[in-house]
Amino acid sequence: MRTFATRRNADGGFSLVELLVTMVIIAILVGIGIPIFLNQRTKAADTATRSDAVNLGLAIHTENEPIPVVKVERRTDGYYIDDKFAMPASKGVQLVTFTTTGLHWCIQLSHPQGAVAKSPGIRYDSERGLEDGLACG
């Protein structure tokens, strides 16, 4: 007959089946979680690009009142309109092009990790506003 002391010593750890079941559950959860996480990063990159496009477009529109804007560029610390600091830039967002004809202008931004913001990018046009997946010109 087994006593309580011998039963306690025989039950010292987890069985192989319990460990395998736990590992399978963790693998399933990781398999579900990683694609969701990667999709959120892509959406965040697109949102950052849209945000920069709208804010930079509004800044250009504000600066465009007395005379047309001549130059828009992205430097390490942010965006510059006619060599004056306009706003900080979101991490990873790139200024692809800025075109101007008279009072009409267009900026195009992209982000290498975005889905929509990859190529050709997201543009903000002085006449049509924000548009996804279109190039200036």
Automatic annotation (TrEMBL):
PROSITE patterns: PROKAR_NTER_METHYL
Top-level taxon in the UniProt lineage: Bacteria
One Pfam family from the record: N_methyl
Annotated TM spans: 12-38
Keywords from the UniProt entry: Membrane, Transmembrane, Transmembrane helix
Alphabetized InterPro entries for the sequence: N_methyl_site, Pilin-like
Name of the protein this chain belongs to: Prepilin-type N-terminal cleavage/methylation domain-containing protein
Taxonomic source organism: Demequina capsici
Lineage: Bacteria, Bacillati, Actinomycetota, Actinomycetes, Micrococcales
